[in-house]
Specification:
The protein is mainly α. 59% of the residues lie in helices and 0% in strands. It is globular. It has helices at residues 9-22, 27-32, 38-50, 54-63, 78-84. Helix 1 packs parallel to helix 4.
Length: 85
């Protein structure tokens, strides 16, 4: 069985948090409010690490000049992030 190596944990941690921030979300606050569990947060970072969209994500983040209504469609965590809004 061939496994795709996961990307750098710190990079993908910050990519996940940054996309959320562009949407006006604080994942820390979502956990404090019981909307997101620590396990689910870790799963989001792992999902990001396993995706192949980090370059597209960085370009998307760099282009943001206003609050994004939704996560980019290519984001591995789009469904979860959009549910938190």
């Amino acid at each position: 069985m061939h496994r795709t190596p996961l990307g750098d944990i710190e990079k993908h941690f910050w990519l996940t948090r940054s996309v959320a921030r562009c949407m006006g979300l604080s994942l820390t606050e979502a956990m404090a409010e019981g909307k997101l569990t620590p396990h689910d947060y870790a799963q989001m970072v792992t999902r990001c690490r396993g995706s192949a969209c980090n370059e597209r994500c960085q370009i998307w983040l760099a282009a943001q000049q206003a609050r994004a209504a939704t996560a980019p469609e290519f984001c591995a965590n789009a469904e979860d992030l959009n549910k938190l809004t």
